[in-house]
Fold this protein.
Amino acid sequence: MDGIQFIRTADGSNTLFHAGAGEYYHSMHGAVQESRHVFIESGLKYRQQQTGSALVSVLEIGFGTGLNFLLSAEYCQDNQILLQYSGIEPFPLSWEQIVKSGYQHYVSREIWDLFCKNYEDAIQKKVSVSPYIGWEIIHRKALDFETNAKFDVIYFDAFSEKSQPEMWTIQTLDHICRHLAENGVLVTYAVNGNLKRNLQSLGIRWEKIPGASGKREMLRATKSS
Ligand SMILES: C[S@@+](CC[C@H](N)C(=O)[O-])C[C@H]1O[C@@H](n2cnc3c(N)ncnc32)[C@H](O)[C@@H]1O
């Protein structure tokens, strides 16, 4: 992805435009506000408050710029929660590209430095970036990802159904949700008919909740037997 350009969104934070998908990586109403609302508040914090556990594992589908990881790491460090974070990304951005995001302005110096220092290593293997944070970027497609691990929270941050329909099929959702722990939650910025129907067919309970600024609603799904 040469000549990659970050573009300013409404809350002053940057996002990327993906020419192939014809889509931005985040909401133009605000990249950071969307990430905080959809993934941190409605996913990570929600789940953590339910369990009260001092340990949480997160699987992200579509790691991209790492914004969701940065905000998750900050939240966990601040609240003394151990975070195990696995981000799936078949097309990792280079460090030279990521560093232009400007996301250092939204997290502490310590978290940004850990991100900088470990980004290239995290693509190769699981790394402990601090006593609180373990991190890996799995360099493959979601459907090729296999593990016996179950995750407390899944951030489903794929491109939209319009530009990447294969990410929203029952086959893909089934594969992803198999990695969800009992009572684990999956959150995503979108609510579309196929997503609702497919989750229903998989026996996964979902709810519509208020969306990030500029979007009426988003979806949170919970796996329970
Ligand atoms: C909407 S962007 C994600 C934004 C990202 N979470 C961030 O904060 O920068 C979608 C991401 O999904 C990735 N992607 C594309 N195909 C994928 C696949 N088959 N499995 C997992 N991720 C995929 C893209 O490369 C892109 O980084």
Summary: Residues 25, 61-65, 67-68, 88-91, 141-142, 157-159 surround S-adenosylmethionine (CB under 6 Å).
